[in-house]
């Protein structure tokens, strides 16, 4: 019996929305896309870092003002900030277009709530950017723990001017986090655009990232318990739901594009907060079904159709959610070349297991030591399999995923039997469960494919 047959009751809601699961779920294939730098070693056969277009790399003419020549603006206005940041950028026209698109999301709230810090203030807060106050380092640059004069604990992310990520991501992050507010998104306290410094100041998340608690843990580690894992998945899904569902806030959908374990930060109560909005993109509006962009994201997490065509939809994020949820269930990293060759790719490893109920338990993280509800495991695997379907149109919306996770975590009770649509214990003939399993992943590496032919609204930077 396939995984989707096992997900009843709460998942019926999900299935009832016309997103019935697919048998192969997770055929996924090697969503081989440019990968972001993380502090973890990259897979050997994957690019080590996000492959940014060359013009995303540091430019000599990009903000090379003399250090200390001017202090950051105190003008709490996004438009002024944009002017400051893009003014002398070599890609200023493109950066302005990107900024205008984001600012157009919600003109009424286009005010900076984040505070402008000077370099001196952040240097003081982080003890002079000491190595021992470093929390980690990603593609943007190092992240330091700090404390502001008023006692607020912060994480200061410093743009590495020699690094691969740049002005545009700084700008997008500040704009997006100024316009988007939700308990499941990290709060941007401020930024520093003082002279040629570019820094982001976030609320400090005492438990670090989900990656820290989930992946590459020693066998003796206790790891996260099942209930905690499901709550983290639920919180992260709610964050995505807020971004995708324009009815929850003014403006068009926002596609996050970088959903992965290291970008899910955990507060002191292990509540999930999405971070890193530098790759976020305003989604399609009106009759548009997708936006065409350069393929950006992280190796392994990126939806296959996006990696192949550059056509971005909210379903790309749903696929990434399916990958992370599978990591949460299995404790396995999506790409892990330290494992035997046939286990390098988690989605490929899971595909045959999704089809056989007898093998479901093989997928539970050994660190759980069997402490999970069997039905809950089946349901969680079903959600992940549905999100990982190769056919993006067969994936559930993130709102449906949230509903299923609410049920799984006990937030929502199943509707009484009389109101329930009848569960389908055996697949109906037209049900995608009966479709043939996903074809084996294409060996073609999307990175080697020619760029999308369609007009790119991300063509530079
Ligand atoms: N607000 C925060 N509070 C506490 N720790 C944080 C915060 N932001 C980032 N970190 C820590 O810094 C690390 C590096 O974060 P960063 O987002 O720069 O890189 P990454 O997510 O690992 O990689 P990538 O650049 O590909 O997103 C995180 O894994 C996390 O441990
Ligand atoms: Mg990150």
UniProtKB/TrEMBL annotation:
It is found in: Cell membrane. It is an enzyme of class 2 (transferase). GO terms for molecular function: ATP binding; protein kinase activity; protein serine/threonine kinase activity. Residues 57-69 have a biased composition (Basic and acidic residues). It holds the Pfam family PK_Tyr_Ser-Thr. It catalyses: L-threonyl-[protein] + ATP = O-phospho-L-threonyl-[protein] + ADP + H(+); L-seryl-[protein] + ATP = O-phospho-L-seryl-[protein] + ADP + H(+). Keywords: ATP-binding, Cell membrane, Kinase, Lipoprotein, Membrane, Nucleotide-binding, Serine/threonine-protein kinase, Transferase. SUPFAM superfamilies: Protein kinase-like (PK-like). Signal peptide: none annotated. It is a lipid-anchor. Its EC number is 2.7.11.1. The keyword Kinase applies. PROSITE patterns: PROTEIN_KINASE_DOM (PS50011), PROTEIN_KINASE_ST (PS00108). Its main location: membrane. Residues 20-30 have a biased composition (Gly residues). Residues 14-78, 410-461 are annotated as: Disordered. Residues 129-408 form the Protein kinase domain. One of its GO terms (cellular component) is plasma membrane. Belongs to the protein kinase superfamily. Ser/Thr protein kinase family. This is non-specific serine/threonine protein kinase. The gene is LOC123084658.
């Amino acid at each position: 019996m396939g995984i989707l047959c096992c997900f009843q009751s709460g998942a019926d809601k999900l299935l009832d929305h016309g997103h019935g699961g697919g048998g192969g779920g997770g055929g996924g294939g090697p969503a081989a896309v440019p990968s972001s730098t993380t502090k973890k070693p990259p897979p050997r056969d994957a690019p080590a870092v996000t492959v940014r277009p060359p013009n995303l790399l540091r430019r000599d003419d990009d903000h090379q003002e003399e250090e200390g020549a001017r202090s950051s603006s105190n003008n709490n206005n996004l438009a002024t900030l944009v002017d400051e940041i893009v003014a002398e950028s070599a890609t200023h026209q493109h950066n302005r277009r990107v900024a205008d698109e984001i600012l157009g999301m919600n003109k009424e709230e286009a005010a900076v709530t984040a505070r402008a810090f000077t370099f001196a203030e952040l240097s003081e807060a982080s003890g002079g950017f000491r190595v021992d106050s470093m929390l980690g380092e990603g593609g943007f640059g190092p992240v330091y723990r700090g404390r502001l004069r008023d006692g607020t604990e912060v994480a200061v992310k410093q743009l590495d001017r020699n690094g691969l990520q740049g002005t545009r991501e700084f700008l997008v992050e500040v704009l997006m986090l100024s316009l988007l507010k939700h308990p499941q998104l990290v709060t941007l306290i401020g930024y520093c655009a003082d002279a040629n410094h570019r820094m982001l100041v976030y609320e400090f998340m005492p438990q670090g990232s989900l990656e820290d608690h989930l992946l590459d843990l020693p066998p003796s580690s206790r790891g996260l318990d099942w209930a905690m894992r499901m709550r983290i998945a639920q919180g992260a899904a709610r964050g995505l739901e807020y971004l995708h569902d324009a009815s929850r806030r003014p403006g068009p959908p926002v596609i996050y594009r970088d959903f992965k374990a290291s970008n899910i930060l955990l507060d002191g109560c292990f509540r999930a907060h999405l971070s890193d909005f530098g790759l976020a993109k305003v989604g399609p509006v009106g009759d548009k079904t997708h936006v065409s962009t350069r393929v950006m994201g992280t190796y392994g997490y990126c939806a296959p159709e996006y990696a192949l065509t550059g056509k971005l939809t909210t379903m790309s994020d749903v696929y990434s959610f399916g990958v992370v949820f599978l990591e949460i269930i299995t404790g396995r990293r999506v790409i892990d070349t330290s494992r035997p060759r046939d286990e390098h790719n988690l989605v490929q490893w899971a595909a045959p297991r999704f089809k056989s109920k007898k093998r479901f338990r093989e997928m539970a993280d050994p660190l759980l030591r069997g402490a999970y509800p069997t039905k809950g495991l089946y349901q969680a695997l079903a959600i992940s399999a549905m999100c990982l379907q190769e056919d993006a149109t067969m994936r559930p919306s993130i709102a449906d995923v949230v509903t299923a996770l609410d049920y799984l975590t006990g937030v929502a009770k199943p509707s009484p039997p009389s109101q329930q649509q009848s569960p389908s214990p055996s697949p109906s003939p037209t049900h995608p469960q009966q479709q043939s399993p996903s074809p084996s992943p294409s060996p073609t590496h999307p990175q080697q494919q020619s760029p999308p032919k369609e007009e790119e609204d991300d063509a530079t930077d």
